Amino acid sequence: MIPVLVTLATGLSLAYAVLAPSPVLEARASSSAITAAPQLSSAIATFEAEVATLAAAGLALEAILLDIVPPSASDSIPAAVSRAASAYSAHPTDFYQEIASLVFNGVVPGDIALIEAGFIVENSNTNILNPLPKSNIYPKSSTDAPYDVPELTLRAAMYIPPGFTYGAKQPVLLVPGTGGYAGEQFATNCGLLTFATYCRLTVFPVAKLFANSPNADPVFLNLPDNALDDIQVYAEYVAYGINYLNSITGKKVATYGWSQAAVTVRWATKYWPSTRSASSVSIQISPDYHGSIVELALCPVPGGSCAPSVLQQAYNATFIATLRNNGGDSPYIPLTSIYSAFDDVVQPQVSGPGASGFSNDGHGVGVTNVFLQDVCGFILPGGAPQNTHEGVLYNALALALANDTLTTGKNANLAHVNTASLCEKFAPDGLSLADVAVTISNIVISGINIADAPNKSSTEPPIKAYAMKDIPSGFSG
Ligand SMILES: *[C@@H]1O[C@H](CO)[C@@H](O)[C@H](O)[C@H]1NC(C)=O
Ligand SMILES: *[C@@H]1O[C@H](CO)[C@@H](O)[C@H](O)[C@H]1NC(C)=O
Ligand SMILES: *[C@@H]1O[C@H](CO)[C@@H](O)[C@H](O)[C@H]1NC(C)=O
């Protein structure tokens, strides 16, 4: 795998060279090479049948991925995204077959542990030396929900990169999606955004994206257990994180998230009202404000046990119903929401209010809902099948709209960007093939971590006391 990795991610190879081989390499030694599609398909089918009961399902999946003998790596971004699109088109409703095909097609290296190791710094959630807030924010207001997580734990989950300006630039809290940490999910694809410098500087001191525009300063919020436990608990981290960054910078805080981040930020701003005046804007990529009708594909055994946060994001989950009830179907801070028809994890994603990514604007704060295919159609790179759940993370239109949101401090205005030219791009200017490949690898990382979730359950965590008033009739808390 190493040569493929180096080709895909030349910039990363230096960092990898010093790392010890991952433990899964040992599991691999006893198994056999996978060189044909039917072989892979049957290995994954066996994995799917056993995932709910395997003690170390993630390791089993990693071992399969390591056995894959891929074709030579793509040598351009258009070639790589076209291979990603074929993995999606071949398995649009079978999540694990699709992510294995990303490796089989040579889009993503099989040694996922090595990729994760490259983000060990940004993924940290034990940052106990983060400075104290300038005033008491735990709690900030008597109208906020109570915190259960200790303040030091909440504060330590934020990785503040060296070079953070403490208010000279717009602070941005990066909130992860299901199955991973903010470091690995954003450290490469956010390169095109203004915050490129700090996204990459810590791991790759000579990163190409050295000089960038001045309007965003990122902080990585690394939720424990890969964001796979109770989302209500993760909302405490977001609420504290917004008020904390507001306190240490004196600036209103932007949030930028993928997937589950959308409902985590919505829950935090609904039940911790003090976060609203401390916030500027929110940008959400592939959000699921109405959960997903296909999310159980992530838990392949029907009725079997699965990660709590995945169960909470079912279309009819009590968590989602409670969130949406009494005003939570609308944001409490200005929102830019961007989603795609080819989302393999969140559905429905369609034009208009039926999309899970769609928000109403009941609180009049300003909402821009962008269904990519409304703007780019279904053929151009900006709207074609590579725009999966993770594909939107490197979509050029999405990132230009994110930049517009951060620049203006308001929900995005499509008239501010050149949609015709952005729809033609396979990725934003400034992202490399390695950036795109590592961004795509996050869906594989999520799959492994979901399979390995430590606290699998067959029922959602109970709704917290402060939110029980919002459980709609017909749902049980
Ligand atoms: C959600 O619940 C409604 C009402 O019970 C039902 O009609 C619908 O099929 C459910 N949808 C899913 C995706 O479970
Ligand atoms: C971000 O927006 C600013 C202001 O419109 C613009 O000058 C800059 O080129 C944009 N950057 C990107 C990466 O789109
Ligand atoms: C699992 O759930 C328990 C009990 O709710 C909790 O204390 C723990 O932090 C969770 N995570 C892990 C990895 O055990």
Automatic annotation (TrEMBL):
Signal peptide start-end: 1-17
Keywords for the protein's UniProt record, in alphabetical order: Signal
Keyword Signal: yes
Top-level taxon of origin: Eukaryota
SUPFAM superfamilies per record: alpha/beta-Hydrolases
Listed InterPro entries: AB_hydrolase_fold, Stereospecific_Lipase
Protein name, entry field: Alpha/beta-hydrolase
Species this chain originates from: Gomphillus americanus
